[in-house]
Amino acid sequence: MRLSILDQAPISAGQTSREALSESVKLAQAGDALGYSRYWIAEHHDLEGLACSAPEVMLGIIGAHTKKIRLGPGAVLLPHYKPYKVAEIYNTLATLFPGRIDIGIGRAPGGSAEAANALSDHFLQKVWNMPNAVKDLLHFLERNFPKEQEHAKLKASPVPEIPPVPWLLGTSKKSALLAGENGLPYVFGKFMSDSEGQDIISEYFGSFKPRKSGQSSPEVILTVSAVCAESDDRAQEIALSSLVWALQRGKGEGQQGVPAIYDAKNYPVTKADAEALKKMKQKMIIGNPGRVKEKLIELKDLYKADEIMLVTITHSPEDKIRSYQLIADELLNS
């Protein structure tokens, strides 16, 4: 089984943004050493407790401090940017780190409406234009604009020997169809979807059309939230920090970042909160290494996924890396 890491660069209570980003570098290095296939870092804008607004900057640093793990944004939020500039950025990274760069492509705003307006004009119109933007980005990456188009002679320099690999991310049939119709590999964000998703992935498989200079067959990554520890009880304890933090953020709280386990245990939980926590737990995989392994294999088979991408949020950076290590020991290094 191929496993990968999605890092949202969360800031823990008592931690600075600089410390959180430094921990992201350490996480990527750990993934590199443990045999994970890829490390992607998310893009968010003016969201409390999330440190990374510029994945391209972090990927340059992380690429210089890792050896073989593939790197990419999870995702570059394309409606905010011109496809040509995105191609230039990721061609540069692919030139610096040959054969290691992906481009995860998404359409979400990644923050508030105010942040979206500050980043780009007419965001909703650009979301509507997403199919054309994806096609333009692919043309720039593959240098195959039709001769009659205005960009036919334009290069996204530097042109790497091994181009970055584009992936489309989403949680809807619309994103699945866009990926399939453009012959792109697809990432289904199960961890942030209210849908089970099998029907969405089926839409992707059914709509897939190979590109001349791209994917010859469909490929799926399933992204799930997981916390692993030596025992079920310890895993539940560690996971409580991220669960309570999600609860706080839903109420407009959580500005202090991911709470410590002690503070999470002592957070006053109402009846409605308890029900919300129960639903959130059902979307996560929490447990000892054997239990997590069993569940990941089950999901891989159920979704016909080629790879599982794990997002793990803990208060302690050590607990996070330990979670990835235990999973790797069960599924990658056994």
From TrEMBL:
Gene Ontology MF terms: oxidoreductase activity, acting on paired donors, with incorporation or reduction of molecular oxygen
Cited CDD domains: Flavin_utilizing_monoxygenases
Name of the molecule in the record: Luciferase family oxidoreductase group 1
UniProt cross-references to InterPro entries, sorted A to Z: Bact_Lucif_Oxidored, CmoO-like, Luciferase-like_dom, Luciferase-like_sf
Domain Luciferase-like: 1-302
Gene Ontology CC annotations of this record: cytosol
Pfam families: Bac_luciferase
Taxonomic lineage from the root: Bacteria, Bacillati, Bacillota, Bacilli, Bacillales
Family of this protein: To bacterial alkanal monooxygenase alpha and beta chains.
Superkingdom, natural source: Bacteria
First and last residue of the signal peptide: none
